[in-house]
Structure to design on (221 residues):
């Protein structure tokens, strides 16, 4: 009998992600040996505070072990992720799943890498025919201007912000995207319950990042 795949689930925050991984694993129909890691594991408040993005650097929102939200910069986060991936390459995992939809250009791994951003954006592209108006929900207001998917002649992209960790404007953000043909909740922190609330308002298909990533993990089970 084939063994259950041993998968490293990596958050850009701190592990364990009790708000995320159980829901992802419940959506995977099969056995997975899941081991969690966090890019901020072992760091104290002062060290994390120094990772706040300077002006002009892309920002990321994530969750600490105590449930609080923190905003960190992409450059330092990418460096810490690469160091972590290098260590995980030596631990003989069947796959690494990066639980972040932020765009990291330089990440590399010798282990099979399921990168949430690429998986989610590929799914969005698969819905491209007939999707002239794409709505994107992001955690931070500043990310609305930083987001890597931009409008083109083929598709208009609108973005709204709502933090799954500290926000209280989910319905407002959903109404801002109500004229979209497709809405993507482009953060792994968004839950199935949040997706249902957005779908009830926009009455259009709503893609949930963690559901899409769970589907990718399903392919190796």
């Amino acid at each position: 009998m084939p063994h259950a795949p041993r998968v490293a689930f990596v958050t850009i925050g701190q592990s364990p992600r009790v708000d995320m991984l159980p829901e992802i694993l419940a959506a995977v129909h099969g056995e997975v040996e899941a081991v969690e890691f966090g890019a901020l594991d072992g760091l104290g408040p002062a060290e994390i505070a120094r990772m706040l993005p300077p002006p002009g650097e892309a920002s990321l929102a994530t969750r600490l072990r105590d449930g609080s939200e923190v905003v960190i910069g992409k450059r330092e986060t990418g460096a810490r992720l690469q160091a972590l991936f290098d260590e995980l390459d030596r631990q003989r995992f069947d796959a690494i799943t990066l639980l972040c939809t932020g765009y990291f250009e330089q990440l590399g791994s010798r282990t099979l890498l399921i990168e949430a951003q690429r998986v989610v954006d590929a799914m969005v592209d698969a819905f491209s025919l007939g999707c002239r108006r794409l709505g994107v929900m992001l955690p931070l207001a500043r990310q609305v201007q930083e987001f890597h998917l931009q409008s083109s002649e083929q598709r208009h992209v609108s973005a709204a912000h709502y933090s799954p960790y500290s926000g209280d404007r989910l319905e407002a953000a959903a109404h801002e995207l109500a004229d979209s043909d497709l809405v993507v909740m482009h953060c792994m922190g968004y839950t199935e319950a949040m997706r249902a609330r957005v779908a009830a308002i926009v009455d259009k298909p709503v893609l949930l990042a963690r559901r899409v990533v769970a589907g990718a993990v399903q392919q190796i089970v």
Notes: The chain has eight helices and ten strands. The first helix runs from residue 21 to 26.
